[in-house]
Each structure stands twice: as structure tokens, then as C-alpha cells.
Protein 1
Amino acid sequence: MKTQNTKKIFGIALVLILAGNILACIIQTNFGRVTVKDIFLPTENQNYLHALAFIPKSADSENKAPVQPWAFRLCQ
């Protein structure tokens, strides 16, 4: 009985983790309308600043749109 209950809780937890991951990806890309790219910018101290660049999919050479960078971590 105890192993069945443990397996059931584990299954529910796994489904919730996967659903949360998919939902976060959908929200972050604005339902596929934004491309998210990892960028690494070199600093003066030979470190790297890690950032995410949010680029609208409608942006091209004729239809210019702003890129929104989000820097959040210094890498050594």
C-alpha cells in the first residue's frame, strides 16, 4: 500500500514539473512570437556576463524591432 501511494505521489509530482516547464517556456517566448537567445558578453576583467536576448520573430532588416536583453549572471 505504501509503495503504491509513493508511486502515485511521484507520478503527480513529475506531471506537475513537466507541465510547469512547458508553461514557463510558452510564457517566456510569448506563445512562440519571441526568440530567446543566450549571449555571453566579455568584460574588462576577462569574465563573461551571461544574458538572455528576447528577439521578436517579426523583426528583420526591413521591419526593425527592439531587442530586450536581460543580464543576470557574471561567469568566470
Protein 2
Amino acid sequence: MDCHIAVCDDEEHSRKSIQKDLEKAAKRCRERITMRFFESGRVYLDYASEGWENILILDIDMPDMNGLEVAREVRKKRKDIILIFLSSHPEYVFQSFEVQPFRFIRKDTKDIELFLALRAAFSVIRSKQKKYIRIAGEDGEEMIEISDLIYAELWKRKLHFHLADGRTIAMKMTIKELGSRLEGESFVLLHSGLMVNTAYVKSHTRLDVTLKNGDKLPIARTRAEEVKKAVYEYWSKL
């Protein structure tokens, strides 16, 4: 997932510090981010009409136009943007409620709080993004939402896609090709012919995973640690 973050803060040293914290947070969350920085609210608003950013991080105490005023203007056009206030003045927290911020972070604890906020924000953004995979079955081709794919297994030289609606669609495709198409998504290889969506994993052992629908899928001995890592990584983002 690619996430675009705009940061508006009038102090250069603060912008540099925020940049470092964002880079660290993105690395911990294993997400790709692109950042743009603005030294004033008016400069940001001149740019904001592009609608490029998913997340806006705003300092409140800025000259000329404070962060609350900027947020009010942003909310007129961008109801969906994730708004995070960053301030040394916690007394503004109640005033900020009118623009529905995602988080209000204190600058003196931002190294911790910014990571927690971003992790939660990434989860929200990911849930809103619909991605599809094209599956060509016997009855024709179909675009399937990746989030609806529970697992895929190789059987009789075909991949069988098990979907959330209860259907199974078979087509000729290799596990390697499927892995390439699903790169960056929450899937993990259980063994050479079986791949599962970690979003549907309820529990796991070194021998198998149990899905939320009750199905159990075997794990190859050589894949146990990688599966454990992938499942915990997904759970950590919830």
C-alpha cells in the first residue's frame, strides 16, 4: 500500500523531526509512504485542491493561519481525509473536536504516539481501498476483490480459489504467478501449493492454521516461522 502524507508545521526543525518519526513508523509498519511538507497553512491550502494526500498532519499553533482554521477549510471539501493534530498545547484538544480529528498528539511524546496513530491510520486506509484480481474460470472471467479471497490451493494442475461467498473457482495459474499478483497484500504461503489470506486466520500452530470459517489448512515444516511472522504482522495492524 502506498500512503501519501502532508505535514504542515511552521518550524523547520519540527518538520525534520516529524519526517524522521514518520520514516521510522512506516518502516515498523512495513508500509510505503510519500511525504510533502508545508511551512504554513495558506501554502498547504493552495496545494490541497489536488487531493493527493490520505493523511494530513497539522501543527495547531502557527502564525497567520492556525491549524484549526486550516482544518475547517480542509473539511469543507475532504470529509474522508485522516486528520492528525500535532501540538505542544493540549488545551486545544477540545476545540479540535469540531473538525473530527483522527488523533491529537502531543509534540513531547510524538515519537511514540505518532507511530500508534499511523498504524491505526494505515489500517483504516487499507480497509477503504478495494483491489481486484482477475480470475478466469470455466464460466468466464471475473474480477474478484482481493479481500474476498480466503485461500488458494493447487489441485490437479489448477489453482482453486476459495472465496468469502462460499464459491470455489478453478483456473490454470501457478502459485508463483499468484504470489506475484498479490505482492504487498496480506497473503502467506503455507506450502508449495497453498496460499492463505491472513485476514481470515483465527489461530495457528506450527502444523496448521485454523480459519474463521472453521477450515484447517496444513503448514509445511519449513514455512512455520514465516507463517507465524505473517500472521502476527497482520494482527499487529488491527
